[in-house]
Amino acid sequence: MKIQRIKDERLILKNLQNIRVAYVVQTLGILGILGYDYVTKGMEGMIKNPLWFLFIVTTIVLAFLSMNIRVDYESSKKSPERSLLFSVIVLTLICLAFGIFTALSEGFKVMNGVVIGGIIFICGLVPLLFLYGIRKKRND
Amino acid sequence: MDNRLKIARVEMNLTQQELADKVGVTRQTISLIEKGKYNPSLKLCLNICYTLNKTLDEIFWVEKGIARDENTKNQR
Questions:
Q1: Would you kindly state where each structural domain of chain B is located, as residue ranges?
Q2: Assigned fold of B5-75
Q3: Residues of chain B neighbouring A10 (CB-CB closer than 8 A)
Q4: DSSP code of A78?
Q5: Each residue of A9-33: pLDDT tens digit?
Q6: Are residues A116 and A98 in contact, defined by beta-carbon separation less than 8 angstroms?
Q7: Of A36, A130, B41, B75, which has fewest CB within 10 angstroms of its CB?
Q8: Which residues of B touch A11 (CB under 8 A)?
Q9: Looking at residue B72, what is its pLDDT?
């Protein structure tokens, strides 16, 4: 029998549901292996496992994709610019707090505080800009 | 969801397989739609209607009360 590309919408949907089940199984497996690593080798050993990196990347991808869905539930009255501004202010305050606490901690210099604050700021800014982009596109 | 797909298909002298081939799905999907166990997309409904020379109303329309009853049944 010739293998055909699935064109039946019901089967495409079914296929996606199967993939979801496989994803759940895979995630549980990864968590199991990481849990085992945590018990036997401790936190350090767990983080060294490449599966940890895979798990974090998958979670981030899922979180970014979920933003697409979450934005649709928001009331359209919210202006994307105001939301972005508000989020950036909150993020800046959090980064400042982290930076100052790091700089004041024993064994750390002011430069360390700036670097830590800067890294957190950039990491926080990316999803905010992504969210802003989606909101902007939805409002157009 | 109740529909009159089976009647319309028999009127056109088509088997489930023939209809399925014409609209580009599998026979099982047609069977499930006829039994009301699968909710087809509007695109598929339109393709079925074009093939059977019927309107959406003639095959898929159900009165509001009946449709709502079915919805609440499905949610339970």
A1: 5-75
A2: 434 Repressor (Amino-terminal Domain) (1.10.260)
A3: 25-26, 28-29, 32, 38, 40
A4: S
A5: 999 999 999 999 999 999 999 999 9
A6: yes
A7: B75
A8: 26, 29
A9: 53
B27-35 and B16-23 helices, crossing angle to 10°:
110
The CA-based angle A25-A28-A29, given to 5 degrees, is 85
Cβ atoms of residues A134 and A108 within 8 Å: no
Handedness of CA A83, A89, A91, A94 (dihedral sign): negative
Residues of A engaging B, defined by a Cβ cutoff of 8 Å: 7-11
Predicted complex ipTM: 0.77
- Cβ atoms within 10 Å, residue A52: 17
Cα angle vertex A45, ends A41, A48, to 5°? 165
